[in-house]
Amino acid sequence: MWTVNLIWSCPMRIILVMALLWQYLGVASLAGVLVMLLIMPITTKLASTSHKLQKKQMGWKDSRLRQMGEILSGIKVLKLFAWETAFMRSISSIREKEAVTLRKLAFVNGTITFLWICAPFLIAISSFVTFVLIDEANILDPSTAFVSLTLFNTLRTNMAFIPQLVAEVAQSRVSFKRVTDFLLSEELEGRSPDINTNDSNAIEIDGGTFCWTNEEPPFLRDISLSVRQGSLVAVVGPVGAGKSALFSAILGEMHAAEGTVRIMKGCRLAYVSQQAWIQNATLRQNILFVKPMERTQYDLTLSRCCLKPDLKILPGGDLTEIGEKGVNLSGGQKQRVSLARAVYQDADIYLLDDPLSAVDSHVGAHIFKHVIGPNGALSNKTRILATHDISVLPDVDKIYVMSGGKILESGSYRELMNQKGEFARFIEENRKKQDEDDEDSSPEANENEDKTTKRMSSEDLKALMKRTGSRLSRSISRTISVEESEKKKAQFIENEKMEIGHVKASIFWTYFRYATLHLTLFFMLGFAAYKCFEIGSNVWLSQWSSDEPLPDGSQNVPLRNMRMGIYGLLGLGQGISTLIATIIMAVASTRASIRFHKSMLWSVLRSPMAFFDTTPLGRVLNRFGKDINTVDVGIPARLQSVVTLIIAIIGSLVVIITTHPIFIAIMIPLSVVYAFIQIFYMTTSRQVRRLQSITVSPVLSFFSETVQGSSTIRAFGSQYEFIQRQNKHMDTNCRTFFTSTTLNRWLGVRLQFLGNTVVFITALLSVAQRNVYSPAIVGLTLSYALSVTENLANFVRTWTMVENQMVSVERIYEYSHLASEASWKTESINLDLNRWPSKGAITFRNYKMRYRAGMELVLRGINVDILPGQKVGVVGRTGAGKSSLALALFRIVEPTEGTIFIDGIDTSVLGLHDLRTKITIIPQDPVVFSGTLRINLDPLEEHSDEDLWRAIEQSHLKSFVLSIEAGLDYQVSEGGENLSVGQRQQLCLARALLKKTKILVLDEATAAVDLETDKLIQNTIRQEFWDCTVITIAHRLYTVLDYDRILVMDKGTIAEDGKPDDLLENPHSLFYQLASSAGLL
Fold first, then answer.
1. Best-predicted range by mean pLDDT among 326-340, 729-743, 1029-1043?
2. What is the pTM of this model?
3. pLDDT in tens, 518-548
4. What distance in Å separates the CA atoms of residue 1044 and residue 828, rounded to the nearest whole number?
5. Which of 63, 338, 604, 710 has a CB 3.0–4.6 Å from the CB of 276, allowing a cystine?
6. Where are the stretches annotated Disordered (predicted)?
7. What b-and-e string marks burial along 512-537, b requiring 16 or more CB atoms within 10 Å of the CB?
8. Three-state DSSP class for residue 855
């Protein structure tokens, strides 16, 4: 900000200097003005080019950070699939394009610097030459030469700021344009739903056609619906039918091309999204949201949403930090927290987007009965429920059936069944899939019974297991579930580290080493040569001005011409050395920034999951954004200024001391005062800079979190509260910025005083020794003394900026040396990885695991042998260790003790890449990335288009891909926003089909798809993985009833192991109790 004043003060000073030059050189000064006028169009053109390159570089930076954000959000999927190298190549590709632009920008700015450094000399020589040539009577005496030289030095100092100002103005223009474009972009306030005056209907849509933007084709067509106040309405349909989009339309998140949305006046909305949005806060804060604590209501909400048992597991109870995106909760727990948030707000209208899909069946039954259903806590509220669970449909007041963005049918359960239309076929497909008992087939019976509490005998259950065939499972809890957080401390997120004291010399050494030492040396020598040429030209000018005229009073023309020629050559030397130095600096700094980014990127990608679980995304993005940008742009410019200023100060002091050796004695106390000011200022400003860097991270993290949950925040009408929270983070950051600005002012006042002292003492010495030195030498000394003042002030300020910006290098270096996972490639054993594993046998031997040092074990002495081709279901209550067992296979967490063998090979001796590429997982949360469908399916580019199309067909995405013109080159938006959750899950299935390994782990693979697609996917898995070992970690027990084997986990151990029917023979077994709780007995 301190440079803002230079925008007007530099041009004003330049004008004043030119006016003073007119007084001394007269019309000859116009030659200098002409030189300036010739230079300015060139620099203007270069400034325009710099602006364009700056804009282009910021575009690449945005693209890189956007993809980096996606990578960090989906880092677990990257690790499970061993995709780190593929995504590193993708980021590096963008970074290389950014680096090319940076290099071009550095060359352009270097040329601008060259021109502006040459400009004062060119103005000087043109003015002096013109002065002596236009009139033989004009003698370049010391007074004229050195007053002019002092003015030229002032001109040089001010013009030296021009390149920096040009670059900063260009960058500011780009930033202001981007902010302006954002502020002028379309806002959602104009799409707010109309107020409905009909007292009987809470929500009405009449002939609505909706699209995401004005430029896109309609996504929902001919939507007409009415929801009576206090009723429960269900929305059903296949994947991509438009159920979630309908909710977005009601919330005003879509553009209404036709029709209107009306909501009853005064009604408050609550929204539970299909993918739960969790804040990086405590569990209590997530539920309270913006409402104050009311203990009775809060406790009731916890009970109704089945969260009380989870509080006993979490170390800090409801004060436990959840972590970014709810990383230490299972998918079901996140969904229940999201539901509890909505329930606690006590709204009038509830939009519930499939909140039961991620929870255990018995938990879902409890939630529907006690929260959503006719007798639940929300029974007097208006509720719209999107669901795939048909068991709840007989209990709703009205059902809307959607497909292809349209409402096909609507009515009560009985009416729709009697119509024998889409809904009836939908129900029939579900019945065939689940093989329900005959008692479920009658709609009339369904209306008279509570479907959520049906019971089956153990004999009936065994019959059901036999009929279901080899259907595979669809549940594994979210990767780090509560069993992982079970032993964690209440404070989950670690505080950001801040160094104390000066930036270590090793950090500077690292920067110069990354820039390559020989280039750094040549860069410094280039500017040293520039200063030598400058001092030489000024000394030469002093001798020129001391030349005596001929006896007749005329000039010695041959001597004058020789003086002018050499003076010109010395000036040319200044320009050439500057140009060479700036080009070397451009090459060296770009090389350093590329190396820093590459080393930090690989270090972060190879960090264990514990790092990502305890580090907010914004903190990491801050390193890749602000810190890398400082290394790219800030440090090179400041280093160049520092080197120039150091050489200038040394040169000035050499000239002064050569003229007045006694000045050395005066320099000692002045140096002590100067050192004290510098140390005091730098010590303080360094820590302020570090505080600035640290206070930026919460701003970015909270902003990112808020953007991700913007739909939920707007639905609750809580925009103001979140803006205030963001303002609080901004205020904290701005306080450090204000402190930094006031420190600069403190420094400026003291250095001006110190510099004026140097000038005053030099002037006194010159007057005292006026008979010893010629006027030319005295003038030269005074001109350099005057330059010391500003150079000293600029040096301390610029050096402080360098050290402050080196904090970014310090922070990058820290992230470049994070603790890494185990070796990437296998090195210690001789194994044919192309054929391993050939069977899929898995053995756990005394396997123990904890998530971090000092925490308790989450797996306690697991011993189990899984035979090749076995289908194994892993079940257990929340916190039993199911997810931990799955993560152990992939070595997401390393064992504390014990071993896992796959086909007889100890997995701990394998490289993580070799291990993870030989096991496949279909995760519960379908993570996709921006880019083409092709890249999302095959980031490593290992498969042909024929393979991709086969996988798409087998995952039942072919009809969708064929319906879009781009096909495999269809661009998936950030986070997969232009795909439904079900389509994203099908995409994850296609990845597994492409990988096709001997071991498959299923993570609730079909939770978000409709029943018909679920059946097709299950058939595909059954057919394609029939000879593979399949491990399903299940919440819904009916999905594993037909498996070869069940492992029941309890408190980190395998409590029971056997065939499902054998375990059900014992009414005291844990499996029997789980089945009973799920309503299967």
1. 729-743
2. 0.66
3. 888 888 888 888 888 888 887 787 777 676 7
4. 35
5. 338
6. 430-460
7. bebbeeebbebbbebbbbbbbbbbbb
8. coil
